[in-house]
Amino acid sequence: MLATKRLVSLTGLIVGLLSERVLGQDGWPAPEVMKGTIPNNPIAQTLDPALIRRESDGKLFLYTTGKNGSLWTADSLYGPWTHEGSAKFREYGGAPSIHRVDDTYYLYINNHEFDYSTVGVTDPAIHNWAHNSSILAASSKTLEIGDWQWHGRLEIDWAKKYNILDAALLTVDDGGGKRRNLLSFGSYQQGVFQIPLADPPVKIADGANADTTHLANNQTKAFDTGPTEASYIFKWNDWYYMFFSSGRCCKQPDGHWVGRGDVYKVMVCRSKKPRSGYVDDKGVDCANNSGGKEMLGTHNDIWAPGGQGILVDDEAGGPIIYYHYVPYDVQTKTPANEFRFGWNKLDFSSGWPTVVKQSQSRKYRKF
User: Fold this and answer.
1) pLDDT tens for residues 274-288?
2) Is 321 exposed, middle or buried (0-12, 13-18, 19+ CB in 10 A)?
3) Which candidate in 32, 48, 280, 315 is catalytic?
4) Quick check: is 48 catalytic?
5) Count of C-beta atoms within a 10 Å radius of residue 248
6) Catalytic choice (166, 229, 313, 315)
7) Which pLDDT score, from 0 to 100, does residue 7 have?
């Protein structure tokens, strides 16, 4: 009987530990398990994943930040993933964002090569790496390395209130064959902004610099000016959901991490309109009053998840959130020196997206 009780107790402990690994200490699940090597950046640099499935054959392409960018491919979200090598982007490119419009894929990356003094900007901040970025646009029919046609810099006016990086495209169907291409961007300063793009979306629309709107700015204890960046707007049913990362993505310049509450976490706000009016689940204004519902943060052996995007995918049976994170040693309480790719299923049944555990219940049906 004693042996039986010990066995039951041990079994309960194992089940409890496994449940905690699956659900996380804050109710968040672990990233979905993948076969083989998990896409990663084995240095202390963000991954900033951009995930998309090619329409023609169902192949997944995962572009990431790295020197000249990096590409991973797979047939399934569960892997195995193959590292194809350098994406052959620009030398100082990063934070790729990829979207399909009609039969063409559009890529946006951060870049630090443009000299704003050549267009009359005299503010000395343009010489600061943290405030001299621009966004480059490219297009491709195949998503393959070397098949990107570069269209140059999006001519967004430089301003102290925003950083011109971390782009994401939202295409709005206005009916009657009309649509709008809206680009969200921004990092720190006053947060996330949005500007209209032309059609096709490889340059800003006429008069766009006078039509920029402010969408979000979320403060944390360590960053009262708002460490808000990496926005991604996604329409589901009647709502536009704006996901963004709040907090510090990476180590401080001296090599240490800020506290758990001030590192990356994924926030969400929503609006009935694509260009303004975003609030959190308590009705707090996300642009002016630091609104934002935390939907994924540090938990168990996952540190600083962020740099997220959304993909609606048949294999997962609906929308997923993909992101990067830093592996965390719970025994030594130490974040690792690398970034990894993760994804989870999203549940919108409450009206707000919730990260849930997905069972690999069916094979992906190729087109």
Assistant:
1) 999 999 999 999 999
2) buried
3) 48
4) yes
5) 19
6) 229
7) 37
